Amino acid sequence: MHQLRGRVGRSHHQAYAYLLTPHPKAMTKDAIKRLDAIASLEDLGAGFTLATHDLEIRGAGELLGDEQSGQIQSVGFSLYMEMLEQAVEALKEGREPSLDDLLREQTEVELRIPALLPDDYIPDINTRLSMYKRIASVSNEDELNELKVELIDRFGLLPDAAKHLLEVAKMKLRGGSLKVKKVEAHEKGGYIEFYPDADINPAFLVKLLQAQPTKFAMEGPTKFKFMESLTDRRKRLNYLNSMLDEFEANRLPA
């Protein structure tokens, strides 16, 4: 339909194309999405953008899903592409890609504190969503620090919730390098859960448990629990960072 519209009217000739569609209630959701995409794109080069929209709607062919859809709809186009790229890299390195490896790109962190970019800090929703995506996509602490400087330069000093968001992003990066699956903390303590192949020195864990049995405990072979009063949010962040420092300093030699 988009190509047909482009064929009507050439050179100095003015022409119009009338494209008739069924009533919206008689169309599928995908059809409505395609029509909306066609109606919104009128600029030069719109064909490429339209093709991208169509790719996201129907899937990207058999390589990316079951009969051009399937699993790509479950995780979204961008995440599916990232997972595919990681799987290809693993195969190039001679490793067998596993789902755990593909999903452990970032550690899950739940600290029970507000961690977001407030509406009154970045009023425009598109800009706000873009910044969220960039924060989630950083690959190291240097990139995160550069993004922090950019936020301050563009929007002013960071509110507490935005500071917490960057702290959580930093913790995810650190957790990823330590093969931490999840970090959770609340007012009375929390836990750090590792992947089974984490290289934390078991002797260090045993030493902690023996030294302070009322403060630390293991729940299963991979979940390290801690009991501590962490009502203050800053103390909660500092406590977890210092704990990750300890684990970093007590890794098994490569």
TrEMBL record:
It comes from the Bacteria. One of its GO terms (molecular function) is hydrolase activity. GO terms for biological process: regulation of DNA-templated transcription; transcription-coupled nucleotide-excision repair, DNA damage recognition. Transmembrane segments: none annotated. Keywords: ATP-binding, Helicase, Hydrolase, Nucleotide-binding. Pfam families: TRCF. The keyword ATP-binding applies. InterPro entries: P-loop_NTPase (IPR027417), TRCF-like_C_D7 (IPR037235), TRCF_C (IPR005118). Residues 110-210 form the Transcription-repair-coupling factor C-terminal domain. This is Transcription-repair coupling factor.
